[in-house]
Q: What sequence folds into this?
């Protein structure tokens, strides 16, 4: 009674295992030919399962040829078919998850994104398998499909804003053009380091330390400039300071060139500094290369245009100290007065009033660890901050060159760039023009 | 105004956290000082700086005396600038009353102008720092009156002036801080043409000819009579209208007398419109300035002349006297035209009315000049810097 089914079982097993072996060989050859990278994964996922499927087919056929009652045959057939479906589903899940992991790892997706995608794939295959099993056992599936459709529509409606972001997230991950750690700038202005790409939104850390959450859909549909990975870190970060100043009146005034000369010799250096620099901040819209106050007064009020021109032509950038600058100004006036006999006085109320500048320096929130962070901060700092690091640092605080150049040379190991920045004559620019020139120099270097 | 400007102000505000500022002046309405304080005090508070404003209580006679002080400190030498011994006694008497009654609470007491200057007598008792803010042109003051005021000023920790020429030989530090305008206030905000038209219609000023306008209190030092004389000269060659618009201030008792003299002088001169505007007529002033072809400020003496900045902010060509703080705002031939007398003013008005392109260029540059130097953000920043710097002697202060 069991001989025929036993013989059928053995025969089907032998033939099935042989066919399985031949099948794998053909598959190996095909995959090798096409260099299909998932070959190994496919073999690993199906190796044991295919042996099980052979056994299930053999068992099914042996039951079919047995003398068992028809209802028993039908019942066993359904059980075996269900097992086959479940095992196929298990293999499909395993294979799909390996593909997801491999793809997303390659795209440097975050662990959270990988886990979410795995869960979605597992869920979809499980639901489809359950529907097939219900169908096999003759249970009507239409209500379940309907229910499922309703749930899906409800979810889509509830998360209609999330769905495009979800797809965008998958797309971003798959494309691999943006990676965590990249410095990006969006067409809408946000910029910073990309710290996380999740399925729905991405997180950007701005240079001031704040976080910006950007929906993935927006990331897909706006212009994104990817500056790539962080640059070499500076040995010490650059802290931007801001400088504002108060004008202090000295109560001293000169009504003619002789009085100007005498006071020029004795006023504090902060007075020399004020009268050779304040025009840079106050009247930059009128001229990109302002003259110092002494030159303007001598020309406009005293009416001595020759001396005015000599004083205006003093190249402030070529002096490394205020004492040397004062000496030069005094020298020019002394030389001029040696041949001057006519004493011209300023009209009442138009005397030269000596003032000085009191600087108040405060640290800002801008800190640069590399040149990219530096150039991004440079876009945002106030003109007072730019002024402090370029003008005030060199001549008033007695540093060898401007602060930017010192940092680039000593802490970022960018000697060439440091030299270019040091040799940039800031007196030939408006402050905004100077900012723009510095940005161009640094961007050229980091690109 | 950029983000960095706001960040800078907030940073300074944070540095002043825990200190309270008390402003004291002599009028709550009318005039540039009250106008600035009305904007400045709430803005300081918004930046986290505890800030209050108290008004010194004067009598009508007291304000008559302080008006004489005002005129004398401006260097005015006529009858209304002669200060007698009785005047000084009355000044001291009212000051003593205020010294006794006025509640003083600030860590920094910021006293504006000469009227409340004597409050500094309470310096040892209250306030860590006392600052005196002079809004007047004291470049050539009457020596007796200045010596009297100076006797109080030297007890302050610092004095603040509006122009370099106002600096004095004082044993205390002196700072230069120019006043400012608020671009968002009713007086300076953008106005639609329909509003301008309706305001002018309501004020009865036809727009059929170019308007030449001076907005100022009716005050001898603003020389309204000189304005009419200059207009009379212009009118001979160019057809235009003159608007003289002004209001009063509670601490200025001379307004009505000056207005009467101006009316008398304007009698018989065609196309002159005299407007005595009530307090709070900011939209009207804004509309008048915006409708003008040329804005004048023909002052004989001027503390600063904020009406000049107001006009420049509206990109209007300005003709103004080279007095007080006006040359800081009007860089001659760059941001407007400076004049020195009636004929010079008339000549400058004619130049601008006859050359609209030149006038427009001056107006545009003037607006940029105000944007960079005379907006309230700069003023706020400098006041906060002053509060922070007043205790330091260094020239570079790290906060």
A:
């Amino acid at each position: 009674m069991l001989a025929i089914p036993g013989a059928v079982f053995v025969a089907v097993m032998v033939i099935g295992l042989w066919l399985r072996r031949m099948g794998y060989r053909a598959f190996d050859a095909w995959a090798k030919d096409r260099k299909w990278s998932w070959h190994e994964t496919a073999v690993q996922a199906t190796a044991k399962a295919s042996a099980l499927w052979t056994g299930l087919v053999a068992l099914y056929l042996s039951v079919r040829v047995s003398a068992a009652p028809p209802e028993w045959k039908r019942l066993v057939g359904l059980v075996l078919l269900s097992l086959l479906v479940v095992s196929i589903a298990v293999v499909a899940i395993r294979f799909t998850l390996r593909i997801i992991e491999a793809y997303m790892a390659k795209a440097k997706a975050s662990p959270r994104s990988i886990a979410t995608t795995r869960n979605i794939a597992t869920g979809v295959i499980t639901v489809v398998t359950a529907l097939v099993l219900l169908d096999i056992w003759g249970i009507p599936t239409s209500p379940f499909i309907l229910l499922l459709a309703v749930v899906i529509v409800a979810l889509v409606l509830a998360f209609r804003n999330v769905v495009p972001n979800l797809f965008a997230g998958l797309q971003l991950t798959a494309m691999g053009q943006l990676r965590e750690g990249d410095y990006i700038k969006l067409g809408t202005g946000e910029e910073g380091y990309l710290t996380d790409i999740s399925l729905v939104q991405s997180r950007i850390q701005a240079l001031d330390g704040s976080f910006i959450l950007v929906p993935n859909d927006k990331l897909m549909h706006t212009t994104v400039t990817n500056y790539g990975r962080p640059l070499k870190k500076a040995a010490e970060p650059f802290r931007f300071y801001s400088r504002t100043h108060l004008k202090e009146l000295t109560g001293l005034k000169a009504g003619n060139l002789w009085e100007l000369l005498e006071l020029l010799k004795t006023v504090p250096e902060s007075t020399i500094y004020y009268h050779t620099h304040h025009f840079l901040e106050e009247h930059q819209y009128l001229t990109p290369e302002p003259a110092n106050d002494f030159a303007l007064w001598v020309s406009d009020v005293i009416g001595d245009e020759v001396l005015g021109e000599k004083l205006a032509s003093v190249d402030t950038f070529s002096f490394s100290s205020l004492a040397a600058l004062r000496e030069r100004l005094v020298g020019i006036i002394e030389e001029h007065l040696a041949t001057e006999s006519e004493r011209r006085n300023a009209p009442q109320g138009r005397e030269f009033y000596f003032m000085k500048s009191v600087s108040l320096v405060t640290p800002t929130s801008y800190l640069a660890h590399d040149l990219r962070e530096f150039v991004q901060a440079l876009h945002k700092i106030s003109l007072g901050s730019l002024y402090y690091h370029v003008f005030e640092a060199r001549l008033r605080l007695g540093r060898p060159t401007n602060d930017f150049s010192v940092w680039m040379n000593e802490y970022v190991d960018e000697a060439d760039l440091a030299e270019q920045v040091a040799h940039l004559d800031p007196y030939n620019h408006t402050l905004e023009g100077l900012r723009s020139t510095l940005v161009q120099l640094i961007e050229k270097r980091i690109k | 105004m950029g983000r960095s400007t706001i960040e800078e102000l907030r940073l300074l505000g944070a540095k002043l956290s825990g200190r309270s500022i008390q402003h004291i002046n002599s009028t709550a309405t009318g005039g540039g000082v009250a106008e600035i304080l009305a904007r400045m005090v709430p803005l300081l508070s918004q930046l986290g700086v505890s800030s209050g404003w108290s008004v010194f209580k004067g009598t009508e006679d007291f304000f008559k005396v302080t008006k004489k002080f005002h005129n004398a400190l401006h260097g005015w030498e006529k009858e209304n600038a002669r200060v007698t011994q009785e005047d000084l006694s009355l000044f001291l008497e009212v000051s003593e009353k205020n010294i006794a009654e006025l509640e003083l609470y600030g860590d920094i007491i910021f006293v504006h102008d000469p009227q409340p200057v004597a409050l500094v007598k309470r310096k040892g008792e209250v306030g860590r720092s006392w600052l005196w803010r002079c809004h007047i042109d004291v470049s050539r003051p009457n020596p007796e009156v200045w010596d009297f005021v100076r006797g109080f000023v030297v007890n302050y920790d610092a004095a603040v002036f509006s122009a370099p020429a106002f600096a004095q030989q004082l044993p205390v530090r002196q700072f230069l801080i120019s006043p400012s305008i608020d671009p968002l206030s009713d007086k300076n905000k953008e106005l639609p043409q329909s509003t301008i038209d309706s305001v002018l219609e309501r004020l009865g000023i036809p727009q059929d000819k170019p308007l030449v306008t001076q907005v100022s209190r009716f005050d001898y030092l603003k020389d309204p009579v000189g304005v009419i004389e200059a207009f009379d000269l212009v009118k001979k060659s160019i057809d235009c209208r003159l608007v003289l618009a002004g209001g009063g201030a509670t601490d200025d008792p001379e307004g009505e007398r000056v207005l009467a003299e101006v009316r008398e002088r304007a009698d018989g001169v065609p196309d002159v419109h005299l407007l005595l505007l009530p307090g709070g007529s900011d939209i009207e002033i804004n509309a008048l300035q915006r409708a003008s072809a040329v804005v004048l400020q023909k002052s004989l003496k001027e503390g600063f002349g904020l009406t000049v900045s107001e006009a420049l902010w509206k990109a209007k060509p300005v003709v103004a006297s080279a007095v007080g703080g006006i040359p800081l705002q009007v860089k001659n031939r760059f941001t407007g035209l400076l004049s020195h007398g009636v004929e010079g003013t008339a000549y400058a008005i004619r130049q601008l009315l006859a050359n609209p392109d030149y006038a427009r260029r001056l107006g545009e540059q003037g607006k940029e000049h105000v944007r960079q130097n005379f907006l309230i953000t700069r003023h706020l920043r400098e006041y906060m810097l002053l509060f922070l710097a007043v205790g330091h002697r260094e020239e570079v202060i790290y906060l």
Observations:
- The CA atoms of residues 3 and 87 of chain A lie 29 Å apart.
- Chain A touches chain B through 41 residues (CB under 8 Å).
- The mean pLDDT of chain A is 86.
- The longest strand of chain A covers residues 238-254.
